Amino acid sequence: MGKKLEEKLKEKKLLLVFDDVWSCSQWDDVRVILKHGAHGSKVIVTTRKQEVANDMGAVHSLNLTDLSYDHCWALFKKRAFGRGGPDQTRNLESIGREIVKKCHGVPLAVKAMGSLMHSKVTFREWKDIETCEYLDVVGDNVVNVLRLSYNHLPSPVKQCFQYCAIFPKDATIMKADLIQQWMAHNFIQSSNDLEMDKVGNDYFKTLCWHSFLQDMKMDENHDIESCKMHDLVHDLAQLIMGKELLVLSHKTPTENVNLGETRHLTVSLHKEREFSFLEDLSKKLRTFISKRPVANDAWVNFKFIRVLHLNDIKEVSSSICKLILLRYLSIQSYSLTSLPQSISQLYHLETLNIEECPELEKLPDDMGKLTNLRHLYIAKSTKILKTFGRLHSLRSISPILFLGEEEDGHGIGELECLNNLCGHLRIHNMERVRDASHVRKAKLMEKGKVYQLEMVWKVRNAAEGTNTDYSEVVEALELPPNLIEFSINDFPDVKLAWTTLLANGSLRYLVEIKLQKCRNLEEIPPIWHIQPSLEKLEISYMAKVKLLGGKCTSTRALVAPRLKHLTFKYMRVLEEWVENSTATPNSFPLLEKLIVKKCDMLRIAPSDFPAVKEIKLNCVGKEGVSSLLSQPWSLASLEKLRVHSCRELSLTLTSTFPSLKEIYISNIGGLDMMCSSANNDPRRHHLPSLTSLDIKYVPEFTALPKGFLQSSSSEHLQSVSIWHCDKFEGFVDVEGSELPLLFSSNLKEIKLWSCRNLESINVRGLTSLETLEINRCKGLESSIIGLQSLEALKNLTLDGVPIIMLSGEDAISDGCGWPHLEILKIRRFRNVTLTASQLPSLRVMEIGWTGNVVIKPITNDDILPSLTDLTIYGLFPEGQGLLQSCSKSLKKLEIESCDNFQGFTQHELQFSEELDHLPFLPIQDKDDNGRGVLPLRI
């Protein structure tokens, strides 16, 4: 793994972020790999431990302080008086401010108290909280503040919160798994058993609202999938759980352990013999979680156990049937190949999770007896149990339901009585369903809680698909009535028989369809018109489809009234996307996003998209691009345009696009942006809302239009980036002066890279410019006019401009300079002269392949006061003042690949008195003759 990572990172410039590091035991191994990255790579680490920062050799260390009172009050006020909360009266505000003071600047405590007060309406309720003994503590005991919030939780939610202590600190907690364990312990109170999952989800949301759970991550449907628990909150949960929770590791002595009150036990001991002390474990034990292999006889006698998690075991004892109260069983093992038949006697089992058992090929046949099983998670390689249709309580089968033959009890008909299935249902091996009666038997229309349905056919080749008629099977399908998302993969038939199914109007809530890898289809009818509720449609990987749209038998007006996102990808032979001649003028009235990718042969496409905000075109035929953009007046809402890898395309953007904000053009043949307006008024151009212009690898792009960058016509423009446009000559000057003019008062960023034909540039007057990068523009032979007028400049990179010298008008001399410049990178220069006193904010300086650098004046008081990073590579420059200008703030000095570096002179070594504190000094310690280039003490 290390070697593969090293190869991927080699010579690449990286920004790596290691979040919430607790230990740096493997840091040395990682650092060896990272050394192969390109120069300028950075690593950012966040940690709660100062020793981790020290051991990792942090160059810059930032310690977070307590939140200020004003920020705490703002956070509290937003939570407490937010929507649905009490009115912010003077009395309540006064009490609230006192509560905030007692939170001692800890955001977690502020959020928790704000959430608590949101549910309190009267003055008395607020006053009772303020005077509570838990808030009247000495010091900053935040746990007491959190406990006050805990005390006001509903009783069942309190139990659920306490149980979270079973997870290690900083562990990722999967929401579904947590709720299922709550259910196993009867923590969830519900009058209707079918709604227990929903009630559990409400409990989970309550804990999130009170900040007891945080760092939520969302799934593809924007539902919470996982979360974490703050250390302080975890401490509170452990404190409340008390002796009922016991966590044993190899560091915990097992002698004289008091198990009398233990109800929940987590163990991670290294040796099986160390579990011998569990034989006399109290009958009160309800949870047993093992992080290490454990002998079967260590747990088979836990007769009252409800939650059991086993790890890395080779076999499961047949005595597991003794655990008659077991409701949750999770096994993770890469060596487990079978389960005992006796597991089918666990009649109260609600959750079986064996998804992390890839060698488990099949399940015991008698598992159909587990009529209380609600959630079944199996590995993709595990064959579904025979007659699984007897599991009437089943809510979810994850990740995939692989169908077998109907006569073997593995067919689609087994779904007949599983009407409690909910959420996402994935059905694979649909090619095995050849009889329409089996589809009808499945009664999919009665699965009212299935909101996402995926059907996958698996045929070995295209010919196999053409030899079988699947139309009767498809027409017999009656889809779940509340379906929201429907996905069809690898459908092998030559005709799309789904249109009749969609046209009957029964799927009122269907908003998304994905159609993928249907290798024999040659044309696709206008699904976007057939299903009026549709909001998102994706069609991809269609090897033979030449026609999209065309004839439609629907009697409704041919319009997609709700469609917002439309994507066509990897349709290499697609030639035409047509709308029926009877279609209304605005077939896509609400379409906001259009993506067309890898449709190389597309010639014909519609162009009327009045609401579209974003268009992405990648590897699309030149005629197709021209067709899509042929009516600019119908693209009045367009805000983002990306055209990429259409090499034969010569794009013309000369008409008015009033809303266009971002343009990204890359790898096309040519680009014409010259406005064709008859008036051609330089004060008004055709892209008035443009904020970002990014053009790369367009060989025939020559210039931006007249007046394009004048402030009166481009007041919103903030970023211009032009890369590898060999014929780009610059910015056409309105006044016709000798040097091209670049002027927009709000422009913040200019990046020019490898524009060989660019001979000059005028940046005078760019009062807001913060970043200027000019790289390898070999045609620049005269000065960059107005460089010294860029008072807001923070980042300057000049690379490969061999004849430019910072001298004369453009020298950094007394009375001018860049007071805000923080990063200066100079590469491939002949001569550079800098005035140190005019660079008070400079933090990072990088000099590469530059022959001569002079920093003046050279005095003890006139150094670079903010410089922390100095990097020299390729060629060690001659000149004076470079090293003497290093101040006490310098934290990193790097000299790399400088063959001409002969060590420091005695004069230069004067600055070495300040180098003892440097934590990072990667300089060769000897020259070719073995002579030291640095003082021995350094």
From TrEMBL:
Superkingdom to which the source organism belongs: Eukaryota
Pfam families in alphabetical order: LRR_R13L1-DRL21, NB-ARC, WHD_DRP
Biological process per Gene Ontology, one example term: defense response
Ranges for domain Disease resistance protein winged helix: 166-237
Keywords: Leucine-rich repeat, Plant defense, Repeat
Single GO molecular function: ADP binding
KW Repeat (keyword) present: yes
Stored Gene3D superfamilies: Helical domain of apoptotic protease-activating factors, P-loop containing nucleotide triphosphate hydrolases, Ribonuclease Inhibitor, Winged helix-like DNA-binding domain superfamily/Winged helix DNA-binding domain
UniProt domain NB-ARC: residue ranges: 3-81
Annotated R13L1/DRL21-like LRR repeat region domain residues: 412-542
Family annotation (PANTHER family): DISEASE RESISTANCE PROTEIN RGA3 (PTHR36766:SF40), PLANT BROAD-SPECTRUM MILDEW RESISTANCE PROTEIN RPW8 (PTHR36766)
Name under which the protein is recorded: NB-ARC domain-containing protein
Organism: Stephania japonica
Lineage of origin: Eukaryota, Viridiplantae, Streptophyta, Embryophyta, Tracheophyta
